[in-house]
Specification:
Layout lengths: L2 E4 L4 E5 L4 H12 L4 E5 L5 H12 L3 E5 L2 E5 L8 E3 L4 H14 L3 E4 L10 H9 L3 E3 L5 E4 L5 E5 L5 H10 L7 E5 L6 H13 L4 E3 L4 E3 L9 E3 L4 H14 L1 E5 L12 H8 L2 E5 L2 E5 L7 E3 L7 H8 L5 E5 L11 H11 L3 E5 L2 E5 L7 E3 L4 H13 L4 E4 L11 H7 L3 E2 L1
Parallel strand pairs: 2-15, 3-14, 6-7, 10-11, 18-19, 22-23
Antiparallel strand pairs: 1-23, 1-24, 3-5, 4-5, 7-9, 8-9, 11-13, 12-13, 15-17, 16-17, 19-21, 20-21
Amino acid sequence: MDVKIFPSALSGSVTVPPSKSAAHRALICAALSNGTSKVTPYCTSKDIKATVACLKELGMNITEDPDGYTVSKGKVKQGGTLNFCESGSTARFLLPVAAALGANCTAVGSGRLPNRPMNTLTTLLREHGVSAENDNLPITLNGKMNGGDFCLPGNISSQFISGLLLAAPLIDSEVNVIPTTALESVGYIDMTVSAMKKYGATVEETACGWRVSKGSSYTANNTVIEGDWSQAAFFMSAAAIGGDIKIAGLNFASNQGDMAALDVFAAFGADISIEDNILHVKRGTLKGITVNAANIPDMVPAIAATAAFAEGKTVIHSAERLRIKESDRIKTVLAALNAMGVKTEEKEDGMVIYGGRPRGATIDGAGDHRIVMAFSVAAAYAEGKSTINGAEAVEKSYPEFFKEFKKIGGNLI
């Protein structure tokens, strides 16, 4: 699907969708719990649908209805195929969960996911009693994971740590998850620990990592999933560049790392306030900034689109993990900016952007939902018509994005 976008100011009110990060965790904990849980609201993103389908394939009981999910633990299914589709979170969370359940199964994926490295997990699985064929998808698992110490780098992906923690209460012995390097995206590990505790698991932070004691288990609970700060960032960008937008549905005490959007867009110069639990962002005089993206890699496309309209130079660094996302996001962001006439420099771990007056262009969405959303916003303020190729990529995380984009004045066909 190609979308043509014409210049227009973006103003109005939106409600962000449920957090994918929170939904993955709540559904997994609920599915591994004794008793029946309710998780609301219903999530329309392809990534969450992948997690639900894989949990069902593992034998868990999930009933879907318009307002959410009714979830309970079932009998573990053997010999199934877990299709993670393009969801890295689903893969990194459910591979260790499947191993801890002893579900002899095959895991597959699509898009760039089979090229994304899984050897951090597969090595640990082998060390703890599981046969894992291949270090990239497809991967076949046999055996049941043992407990003990799980030592792994903390600067590759926090999702590996979260997956091991989520699996730990299923193992009949103590589990210690021990990062061997400095942590990145620690807020998302905090989200995992918080979800586990909500569902009754005992997780203890130690001097060297986290401990889940023998006998820990999940107990049913109900969860209302909070709004997604990573999606709010696109609307914050739209308002900062030239609009006036009120954003509902956010938790201002969230563990989501992308709540850092409040600080990032304020640093750019956006006018930001919170009124009756509604985030209000208005146009500001934007200046280039320096951003350490180590803990907020998913925000980089929205930051880059904003930087294109800011006076001066914006430096984004510590973002090397962007090269193994749905696209190589460093290259795809820079290609989009260059197509719009914005001067840039590529760095191994990020980019430099020299703000100016972006012009309309044809943008390759690169099969990447965040590239499509970020540059749809940039296109609204560019000089002249733009075309976003592959706009259907938004279905991965935010199928309603263009509906909301039109609602706040987006002019597209």
